What we know:
The protein is mainly beta. Helices cover 11% and strands 44% of the residues. Strands 1-2-3-4 form a 4-stranded antiparallel sheet. The longest helix is centred in the first third of the chain and has 11 residues, at 19-29. The radius of gyration is 15 Å and the shape is elongated.
Amino acid sequence: MNEVGNWVLEEFTPCELPKEVADGFSQVMSTIVGVSYTPLLYAATQVVAGKNHMIICESTPVVLNPVRSLVAVYLNQTLPAEGGEFRLLSVQPIRIGI
């Protein structure tokens, strides 16, 4: 890829998620094929009917010569009384540049 004029992602160090969130992330993401997500920043939580988690990830398509990108992964964790299970709410691209 020509780097002139293009934004090029730096090399990132994966972050360490809290144990319960890491387990939920692994469980949810194990069902996704064609792309891998590496957590870089455990960015935010939101208390709702359960808890939402926002994790900034590096997204890498499982293809020859993949182009990495940054995404915000949103997970929901149900209330403990409902099992505390995790589910994927959305994966949103993070736009780089102007």
